[in-house]
Structures are given as C-alpha cells and as structure tokens.
Write a structure and sequence with these properties.
single chain; alpha+beta; four-stranded antiparallel β-sheet; 4 helices
Length: 247
C-alpha cells in the first residue's frame, strides 16, 4: 500500500494493526480498572484515617490502637551522625569515593579518495570521575512529635548533596546527607504503642496536602501514557518485521 522508511506497509498489515491496537486498548482498560479500584480502596482508607497534630492525641492513639492515621509534626535525629572532615549534623550521611580514571574508545573517521569513501578508526583517550566505593552512617533513633522511635519506623526524607573534598588530583569524596530536622506528615498505623515500620514521611506537607497528594489520579494518567507508548512500539515492531504470512 505504501512505503515508509525501510519497510513497506500493506493494507492487510494496517487491518491487522487495528486489531492489535483494539486488543491492547481492551487490555489497558482492564488494567486501568484494577488500578482505579485499588486507588478507590486506598482513598477510602485515607478518608477513614484519624488526623493528629498534637502529641497527647498521638500518644493516646498508639496506646489505644487507633489504626490508620495521618500525623503532622517535626522529625529530627536523636543521635546525629557526621564525618569530621565536613562537620555538621545529619540523620543520614553518605560518603562516595570517586577516582579520576583514564579510558579509551574507538572513534570513526571518514575520508574520500578518488570519489570513494573510506572509514578508519583512531583510539581516543578521555578521563572521567568513576565510582570507587561508598560508606554511610545513619542515626539510631529519631524524634517525631516529641516521641522517640527507632530510625526504621519512619522513611527519612531524600538525601541532598553536601560537599566535595579532594584527597588528590585523582581521588575525591562526595558527600550526601539528610538534614537534622524536618516538618511534615506521616501516614501510619497506630497500634501496640508504636507505629508501623517504614512509615512514609511527606516533607513540608500538611495533613490535608498529604491526603490530596495521595488521592490524586496520577497513577492512572502515568499508566495510560506508558501504555500508549507501548501500543505504538508494538505497532511499529509489527510493521517492521516481515509479515509474509499475511500475503
């Protein structure tokens, strides 16, 4: 029917690709429905969760097994960690070693002699800072809304770049860390006089902002974007391969 790039598309291939798209869309609708049902269940869970901003209610909720809860407060390290060469105090700190390393690669060149093009290769040298190991430290305990927990109870905020210190012209150390104090909301379950392990912490978010963030339909939109790209890739791949069986 027509030629596009390096392959030819026939009328039968177009009809077959329409069937592929239809099947993929049907599968996508089923998957999206499952995602939507899961999100609705989670939204119901969020809406039923208690909302706490005071230490007294927080302590009471843990003692009485209040269940799912959004809790707003300050999160800070009880026993801060650091490396003496950079100072400061952190909940978590990572020290990454990098070495300035020489590499080689083959570079293609073309030249034309008497109307004929020739390709030849030369070896090029270049240098990069490459990963050469790392170590880290984490505080043992954190304080959240004036209550002390093992650090494993709350997911710490994301680490940020701190500094780079050169040991020599070919060795350097990069430091990343989580600061000493943050304010935000956790979503957790209050039971057995504590909270669940790895309770997510939403930095700089109030309870209402956290609920709005969790109830967004971003997951559905992300799924459909990925799924449409996948459909396009499948159709392109179908056109690209030799489909003699359709003749």
């Amino acid at each position: 029917m027509g030629k596009y790039g390096n392959f030819e598309i026939t009328k039968r291939e177009i009809l077959a690709s329409i069937s592929i798209i239809a099947i993929m869309l049907l599968i996508g609708i089923l998957i999206a429905g499952k995602i939507s049902d899961y999100q609705l269940d989670k939204n119901e869970e969020y809406n039923k969760a208690v909302k706490i901003e005071k230490q007294e209610l927080f302590e009471y909720g843990m003692r009485t097994d209040a269940g799912n809860a959004f809790v707003y407060g300050d999160l800070e390290a009880v026993d801060a960690v650091t490396y003496p060469e950079i100072g400061g105090a952190y909940m978590y700190i990572e020290k990454v070693k990098e070495k300035y390393t020489m590499h080689t690669r083959q570079v293609a060149h073309t030249t034309t002699v008497n109307g004929k093009t020739h390709t030849y290769y030369t070896t090029e040298t270049y240098w990069t800072w490459d990963y050469a190991g790392s170590e880290d430290q984490t505080c043992n305990e954190v304080l959240f809304l004036e209550h002390i927990f093992p650090v494993s109870k709350i997911d710490l905020p994301g680490e940020e770049y701190i500094d780079t210190i050169k040991e020599s012209s070919h060795v350097r150390y990069k430091y990343y860390g989580v600061g000493l104090k943050y304010t935000g909301t956790i979503f957790t379950e209050l039971s057995d006089k504590t909270i669940t392990d790895n309770s997510p912490f939403y930095e700089n978010m109030t309870i209402d902002e956290t609920v709005e963030h969790l109830e967004s339909d971003f997951a559905i939109w992300l799924f459909w974007i990925i799924w449409v790209v996948l459909i396009g890739a499948c159709v392109y791949g179908f056109y690209y391969i030799d489909n003699e069986w359709l003749e």
